């Protein structure tokens, strides 16, 4: 997906093009296919993953494959398979082959009984989506294998990521990507969330940088294996208002979708990322103002 392609690009700049293999079950766009090694790999195919790891002398594994929150609710059986069975395959392979393993978690790993403003790293986690349940399971499995067998498992809970202008994978925070696309094309965005729905968000470049910096942090600096990372929190109304500073004609109408609104209402409104800041020096570069400028003026 979007996040994997961007992260591969960043890692290739640091570690060399041929030293980073991108994989998916979907065909990437031609410029990605040409930009470095790409292989087909299904996370449900354990033997094939093992073959890839051994034949390519893999040392780090970044596991991004997942069904996101809204799509997961629409297909729970598939989400369970990809998000849980797929994760188990990856955990076993990482342990077996002494790989450093990164798996992202999400604001979706919290639920209505978690503190929401702000949510700390350690608190009640009772999410009500299959996506959230699978992510909490991932956090716990990774930490368990770290403590029991020394697996170098690292996990960041990402906010909603504002990626480039391509269709996102069916999440609850996708409107925040779509609204920029609509602002620049038709000038009209129909939002599936209520105007006052506040959620933690992050520009994709901050997300990639956090991931790489966290992966590179010496183990002795980490007091946790799963950290919240934050950059900004906004509502549809606030982001629309900020966009109108540049494109005053933007029109936003609201037609809340009950599935995604219910999910959003159960998620944190703000992330407490003080542990990430203290332990390995996390600091975001983009707030709402900078996000809107880069999206509308430079459009990455
Ligand atoms: N985009 C966001 O706002 C956030 C993303 N994350 C996490 O980051 C990761 C990446 O997210 P995105 O790139 O946004 O999602 P995405 O939906 O764009 O990408 C997921 C990728 O997984 C692939 N996939 C599906 N089934 C597979 C299988 N059986 N084997 C191998 N690959 C398979 C899909 O083809 C897709 O390219 C996910 O784990 C997600 O939970 C966490 C929080 C926020
Ligand atoms: C925040 C996420 O994990 C993802 N973007 C989603 O909305 O499902």
From TrEMBL:
Top class in the EC scheme: oxidoreductase
GO molecular function list: L-threonine 3-dehydrogenase activity
Top-level division of the source organism's lineage: Eukaryota
One Pfam family from the record: Epimerase
Record-listed E.C. numbers: 1.1.1.103
Stored CDD domains: TDH_SDR_e
Domain NAD-dependent epimerase/dehydratase as annotated: residue spans: 1-230
Protein's GO biological process: L-threonine catabolic process
Catalytic reaction equation(s): L-threonine + NAD(+) = (2S)-2-amino-3-oxobutanoate + NADH + H(+)
Pathway the protein acts in: Amino-acid degradation; L-threonine degradation via oxydo-reductase pathway; glycine from L-threonine: step 1/2
InterPro entries: Epimerase_deHydtase, NAD(P)-bd_dom_sf, NAD(P)_epim/dehydratase
Gene3D superfamilies in the record: NAD(P)-binding Rossmann-like Domain
Function: Catalyzes the NAD(+)-dependent oxidation of L-threonine to 2-amino-3-ketobutyrate, mediating L-threonine catabolism.
Similarity section: Belongs to the NAD(P)-dependent epimerase/dehydratase family.
Protein name (database record): L-threonine 3-dehydrogenase, mitochondrial
Organism whose genome encodes this protein: Periophthalmus magnuspinnatus
Lineage: Eukaryota, Metazoa, Chordata, Craniata, Vertebrata
């Amino acid at each position: 997906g979007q996040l994997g392609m961007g992260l591969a690009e960043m890692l290739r700049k640091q570690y060399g093009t041929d030293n980073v293999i991108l994989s998916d079950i979907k065909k990437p766009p031609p410029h990605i296919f040409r930009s470095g090694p790409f292989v087909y790999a299904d996370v449900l195919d354990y033997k094939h993953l093992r073959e890839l790891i051994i034949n390519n002398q893999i040392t780090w594994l970044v596991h991004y494959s997942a069904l996101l929150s809204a799509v997961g609710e629409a297909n729970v059986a598939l989400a369970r398979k990809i998000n849980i069975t797929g994760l188990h395959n990856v955990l076993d392979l990482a342990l077996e082959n002494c790989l450093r393993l990164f798996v992202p978690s999400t604001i979706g790993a919290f639920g209505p009984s978690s503190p929401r403003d702000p949510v700390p790293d350690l608190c009640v986690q009772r999410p009500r989506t299959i996506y959230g349940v699978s992510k909490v399971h991932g956090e716990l499995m990774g930490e368990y294998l770290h403590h029991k067998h020394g697996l170098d498992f690292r996990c960041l809970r990402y906010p909603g990521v504002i990626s480039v202008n391509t269709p996102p994978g069916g999440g609850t925070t996708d409107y925040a990507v779509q609204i920029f696309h609509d602002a620049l094309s038709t000038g009209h965005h129909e939002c599936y969330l209520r105007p006052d729905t506040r959620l933690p968000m992050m520009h994709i470049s901050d997300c990639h940088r956090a991931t790489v910096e966290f992966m590179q942090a010496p183990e002795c600096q980490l007091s946790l294996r799963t950290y919240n990372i934050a950059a900004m929190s906004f509502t549809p109304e606030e982001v629309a208002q900020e966009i109108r500073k540049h494109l005053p004609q933007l029109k936003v109408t609201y037609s809340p979708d009950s599935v995604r609104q219910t999910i959003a209402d159960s998620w944190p409104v703000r992330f407490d990322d003080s542990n990430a800041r203290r332990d390995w020096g996390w600091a975001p570069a983009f707030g709402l103002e900078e996000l809107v400028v880069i999206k509308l003026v430079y459009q990455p």
